[in-house]
């Protein structure tokens, strides 16, 4: 995606919390994110270590919790695991992987990463890179020649990807520029034809090219700010909870209805849901469902193979940080008036804690939908009607990765379901073109996009959002099951029916068995606990229901972006639990070469063991005119739904809605 968070915004959000942070309480759960005080300790330890002291340049690229192993987390009440931080840093053009014991304030390991790929880009280096062209004489001349005022030019960073280059890679980034001035919608006014390549370690322009280019699209009709228009807004609605909120926030734990879960923020993953358990009223016990769930990667490849566009294949999590670009939520707009907010903290390039205020919101949603109902007309002269309105709990984060905004929701339902939704909005990435009408595009010439306005081509692209879902259904050892629907012929001829379908259950024994291209065969996908049975003797489980049309990558197997994201050929993968396998496209994604991806992790056995489900929501995005100048929400998602997990419908015993509407017109 295109990025240009302004330097001034950066400095406003950079709050020095060092002093204040000493008064914040010590974090109390092993999965809690690092506190500002802990980030400050990590910084102090690292900056006083020989690596930082002896380096001419040192930058923090990622600081986050080095989570303890699952066994330690699950037994932490008996023995508290040490608090550790994982730091990815660059020192004199080398990538270091550092682990700090926060409690002991000690550096406990330092490993230089010699393989392919670089860590997440820092916000600060991107801010520095985008200012370079503005004082680069050839660029100033290119801008002048296009009749654009330099003061109106705003630039953004574009990762360069990897296209088969051999040998030692350099951290390089493309900077592309846009024209603001008459509009705030700078992304739709690109300066085409100019290629600026910046070396990030040297922080200078190393390549410059200006090709013959189409005009910069007009500003007219591009402003998306409703505040500038005098619209007859409809009357504002209200959310009333006269009896107060139905959920409690206890440290990082959220409790609502029959659910309890832990929430944490991470600069790379964004929102992480951990230790989600559902209370089973019939068994009077809390039962584990999801150990950890988060966005592992977000891949957005564009489909225009020209010089200025072919490399635009962005890994928004691994290259930019899905959490780092999270946007503070606007009360009563991003979330309803009854929401509560949670702040997040990341480390800046200098290692200092930076507050991301209101990064998550939590609210009860009274959707106006029905949770279940029944009307019984069957008894002559009687009517029985029972309706339970649906109320659920939603946790939300919005990542605003430059031009695109991603609204990510986790919705917990009293029925035991967890619904995950991701919605795309924001501004499309467009290319300047000579065309002002679709009829001008010669037949047989591939425009690589849709003409949305004069001189404005919105390029075809995909969005693939891959979730890491470490399900622990009623315990850690689980099995992945495909319940395939098999069309079958009726034999014997004793009835006139000729066919039906039945279910063939296949347990996945290896990782290879568990790769699924959704929609290729009708099948239900379940994670079951073969060691736990219901009273009826069924293995307890949850199933994955996709709420999106399956979209797999359409790139050729030998295309470089495909090598880096080969896991996108399937929507579902299952791997054995491994604390270090968190990132579908690898730990070091900037300039990665595809040697540390979900696809290449080995062939292992996954039957009745601790497994992790990976699921990708994909969108092939052909732009339409309604996506301009700003795109209305386009959503996809999935549901994790209990399937023989409870003995019967858990809503019969839930108090989420507080009310079931009963009508009975019974005979006296
Ligand atoms: C657009 O028009 C200009 C001026 O006529 C021309 O020089 C240029 O080659 C055209 N570009 C494309 C991509 O057709
Ligand atoms: C509701 O819970 C009670 C125990 O609290 C149990 O006896 C009953 O079977 C439950 N009913 C359903 C339908 O789950
Ligand atoms: C855990 O994952 C890492 C990274 O893929 C791998 O190197 C390591 O061998 C794995 N450990 C086990 C026990 O499979
Ligand atoms: C869970 O799986 C692991 C690895 O397959 C095995 O060693 C362990 O005994 C299993 N535990 C249970 C409770 O089945
Ligand atoms: Cu899109």
TrEMBL record:
Residues 239-651 form the Copper amine oxidase catalytic domain. Its EC number is 1.4.3.-. The active site is at 316 (proton acceptor), 404 (schiff-base intermediate with substrate). PROSITE patterns: COPPER_AMINE_OXID_2. Residues 119-212 form the Copper amine oxidase N3-terminal domain. The modification 2',4',5'-topaquinone is found at residue 404. GO terms for biological process: amine metabolic process. Belongs to the copper/topaquinone oxidase family. This is Amine oxidase. It comes from the Eukaryota.
């Amino acid at each position: 995606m295109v990025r240009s968070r302004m330097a001034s915004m950066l400095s406003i959000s950079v709050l020095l919390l060092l002093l204040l942070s000493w008064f914040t309480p010590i974090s109390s759960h092993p999965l809690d994110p690092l506190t500002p005080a802990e980030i400050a300790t990590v910084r102090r330890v690292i900056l006083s270590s020989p690596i930082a002291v002896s380096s001419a340049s040192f930058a923090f690229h990622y600081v986050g919790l080095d989570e303890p192993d699952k066994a330690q987390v699950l037994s932490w009440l008996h023995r508290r695991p040490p608090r550790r931080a994982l730091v990815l840093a660059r020192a004199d053009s080398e990538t270091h992987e550092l682990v700090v014991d926060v409690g002991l304030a000690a550096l406990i390991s330092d490993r230089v990463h010699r393989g392919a790929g670089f860590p997440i880009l820092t916000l600060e280096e991107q801010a520095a890179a985008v200012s370079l062209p503005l004082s680069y004489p050839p660029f100033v001349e290119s801008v002048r020649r296009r009749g654009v005022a330099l003061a109106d030019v705003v630039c953004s960073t574009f990762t360069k990807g990897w296209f088969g280059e051999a040998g030692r890679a350099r951290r390089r980034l493309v900077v592309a520029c846009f024209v603001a001035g008459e509009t705030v919608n700078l992304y739709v006014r690109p300066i085409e034809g100019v290629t600026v390549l910046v070396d990030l370690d040297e922080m200078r322009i190393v390549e410059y090219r200006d090709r013959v280019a189409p005009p910069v699209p007009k500003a007219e009709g591009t402003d998306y700010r409703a505040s500038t228009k005098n619209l007859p807004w409809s009357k504002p609605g209200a959310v009333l909870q006269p009896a107060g909120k139905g959920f409690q926030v206890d440290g990082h734990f959220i409790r609502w209805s029959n659910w309890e879960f832990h929430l944490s923020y991470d600069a790379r993953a964004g929102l992480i849901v951990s230790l989600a358990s559902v209370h089973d009223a019939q068994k009077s016990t809390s039962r584990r469902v999801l150990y950890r769930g988060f966005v592992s990667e977000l891949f957005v490849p564009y489909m225009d193979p020209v010089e200025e566009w072919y490399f635009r294949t962005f890994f928004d999590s691994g290259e930019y940080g899905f959490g780092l670009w999270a946007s503070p939520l606007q009360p009563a707009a991003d979330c309803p008036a009854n929401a509560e907010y949670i702040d997040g903290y990341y480390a800046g390039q200098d290692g200092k804690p930076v507050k991301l205020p209101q990064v998550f919101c939590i609210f009860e949603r009274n959707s106006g939908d029905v949770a279940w109902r029944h009307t019984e007309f069957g008894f002559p002269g009687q009517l029985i009607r029972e309706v339970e309105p649906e109320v659920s709990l939603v946790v939300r984060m919005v990542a605003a990765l430059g031009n695109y905004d991603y609204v990510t929701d986790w919705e917990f339902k009293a029925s035991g379901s967890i619904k995950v939704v991701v919605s795309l909005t924001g501004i499309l990435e467009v290319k300047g073109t000579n065309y002002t009408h679709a009829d001008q595009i010669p037949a047989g010439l591939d425009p690589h996009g849709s003409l949305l306005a004069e001189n404005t081509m919105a390029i075809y692209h995909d969005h693939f959002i891959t979730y890491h879902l470490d399900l622990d259904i009623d315990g850690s050892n689980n099995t992945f099951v495909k319940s395939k629907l098999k069309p079958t012929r009726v034999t014997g001829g004793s009835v006139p029916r000729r066919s039906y379908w039945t279910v063939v259950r296949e347990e996945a024994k290896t990782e290879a068995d568990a790769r699924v291209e959704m929609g290729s065969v009708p099948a239900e996908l379940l994670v079951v606990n073969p060691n736990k049975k219901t009273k009826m003797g069924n293995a307890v489980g949850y199933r994955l229901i996709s709420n999106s049309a399956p979209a797999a990558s359409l790139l050729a197997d030998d295309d470089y972006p495909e090598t880096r994201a080969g896991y996108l050929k399937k929507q579902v993968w299952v791997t054995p639990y491994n604390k270090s396998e968190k990132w579908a496209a690898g730990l070091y994604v900037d300039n990665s070469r595809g040697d540390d991806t979900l696809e290449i992790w080995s062939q292992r056995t996954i039957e009745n063991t601790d497994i992790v489900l990976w699921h990708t929501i994909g969108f092939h995005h052909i732009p339409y005119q309604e996506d301009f100048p700003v795109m209305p929400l386009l959503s996809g998602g999935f549901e994790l739904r209990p399937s023989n997990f409870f003995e019967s419908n858990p809503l019969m015993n839930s108090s989420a809605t507080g009310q079931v509407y009963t009508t009975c017109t019974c005979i006296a």
